[in-house]
Amino acid sequence: MASSNASSNRRDFLRLAGLGGVVFASGCAGTAGRGAVDDFYFVQLSDTHWGFEGAPNPDARGTLPKAIAAVNALAEGGGGGPDFVVFTGDLTHTTDDPAERRRRLREFRELATMLKVPTVHFMPGEHDAALDRGEAYREFFGPTSYAFDHRGVHFIVLDNVSDPGASVGDAQRAWLADDLKRRPVDAPIVVFTHRPLFDLAPAWDWATRDGAQVVDLLMPHPNVTVFYGHIHQAHHAMTGHIAHHSAKSLIFPLPAPGSQPRRTPLAWDPALPYRGLGFRQVEREGGSPPVPGREPWQVTELPVVKA
Amino acid sequence: MTAVRRRQVLALAASLALAATVRGAAPRVIPVVAKKFVFVPDEIRVAVGEAVVLELSAPEVLMGFSAPELGLRADIVPGQPTRLPFTPRQAGQFAFSCDVFCGSGHEAMDGVIVVGADG
User: Fold this and answer.
1) What is the model's pTM?
2) Across the interface, which of B64, B67, B103 has its CB nearest the CB of A94?
3) Cβ–Cβ of A202/B68 closer than 8 Å?
4) Which top CATH class is A4-302?
5) Exposure of A271 by Cβ count < 10 A (0-12 exposed, 13-18 middle, 19+ buried)?
6) C-alpha distance from A164 to closest chain B C-alpha (Å)
7) How far is Cα A65 from Cα A108, in angstroms, rounded to an integer?
8) Interface membership of B68 toward A (CB under 8 Å)
């Protein structure tokens, strides 16, 4: 079990190593009544787009291995490694060729085995799953939506990409409602999804068609946080008391929502390679009873390579 | 009134009459083809108050048409042309895009509806 000391050591290590980016705390203050939660952290990687080739990333085949090495270095740095890694979709870059799609998924899966962590959780993005409604993805990684529990936190993986129209759909929403019903209303819950569940930038297709209905299901629960990908940048927003945090990509960054007419990738800067790319550490500060006013999730952005 | 000035007034009156006729007539149908990975045309010009119908078709795969600022969206099913009527009420440029993931060029599949005072 990760102790508070280990947690402090890890933060000290990140600070001294110059690795930690902006730290963002999220969650809800009023957490009385929920069960015991241990301190731990996980790592979120997103939008690796394995198979992409193009000017926005001249090191497309090297970036993910570098990120994996950086994650493995967390464990070697003295603070202890993450309890698990989650990839929040777009593992591969899309292709019309089903055989090529499977080749990319297979290569990606082999790369992910290089992670020295106890568990890796996967989920699809539209690039992996929308053209065949998740058929190839499931062959390699199993179900596109599922739930698991870890150290007192309930994690829910929602699929809003296998439908090319970006809907979660009636069946999955019914499954979500049933899953939520079977735990205390104030249970700590994390939702992983690929697309934003709220209308971040509908003109850029940065939304989920029935996302508002999903948020309605989550709204009665006071301790819900959403982590997602898709938009290739860190972004933090609230729908009521629910915090939504998007992650950086590991292939190319995209412009801020609605900041320019088209959502074209930001150019690679040879003077600052990997700028705008990265992954994140998400740390749970647990305890029972929780400390009033203390935010339970701390997000630390980390670069692919040290500056 | 000089002859030149008289001609200008008559031209303006004719222009206004034509505009009124257009606004009272059947909606103008604008064909829009959604194919991998472009809308044709990708710039649609209409006038404020002009009733138009976008006649959407997709010859290859399922596509979407979404112009959220105008409240317009539709699936475009191959073999089933979709008609999307609207009458813009304000001038401006309104982005539209495909919101059904259709392949490697999906993210670049977009366009703009330009609503002008005179189309």
Assistant:
1) 0.86
2) B103
3) yes
4) alpha beta
5) exposed
6) 5
7) 10
8) yes
Answer for the pair A82, A281: CB distance below 8 angstroms, yes or no: yes
For residues A84-92, average pLDDT: 98
Q: Provide the Cα torsion A149, A207, A250, A130; round to 10°.
A: 80
pLDDT of residue B21 exceeding 50: no
> Nearest-CA residue of chain B relative to A96?
B103
- Coil, strand or helix at A270: coil
Residue A230 and residue A202 in contact, taking contact as beta carbons nearer than 8 Å: no
pLDDT category, B1, cuts 50, 70, 90? low
Nearest to A39 by CA among A78, A68, A10: A10
Question: Considering only CA atoms, which of B27, B87, B86, B81 is closest in space to residue B56?
Answer: B81
Given an 8 Å threshold on Cβ–Cβ distance, is A203 in contact with B95? yes
Where exactly are the structural domains of chain A? 4-302
Tokens of B13: 């009156």
Q: What pLDDT, on the 0 to 100 scale, is given for residue B6? A: 60
The label of the residue with tokens 């006013």 reads A293
Which residues touch A222 (CB under 8 Å, ≥6 apart)?
A28, A30, A31, A185, A186, A241
Rounded Cα distance, B64 and A169, in Å: 17
Tell me which residue has tokens 């939008």. Answer: A47
User: By the 8 A CB rule, do A226 and A245 touch?
Assistant: yes
Contacts of A200 in chain B (CB under 8 A): none
The whole-angstrom separation of Cα A143 and Cα A172 is 12
Nearest to A301 by CA among A135, A67, A125: A67
Angstrom CA distances, A186 to A47, A82, B70, B104, stand at 31, 25, 39, 42
Write down all domains in chain B, each with its CATH number in brackets.
26-116 (2.60.40.420)
Asked whether residue A118 carries a pLDDT value surpassing 50, the answer given is: yes
Q: What is the pLDDT of residue A22?
A: 45
The alpha-carbon gap from B77 to the nearest alpha carbon of chain A, in Å, equals 12
- Nearest Cα neighbor of B33 from B58, B53, B54 is B58
CA dihedral A217, A84, A162, A105 (to 10 degrees): 180
Ranges of H-type helices in B1-119: 3-24
Q: How many CB atoms lie within 10 A of CB A147?
A: 18
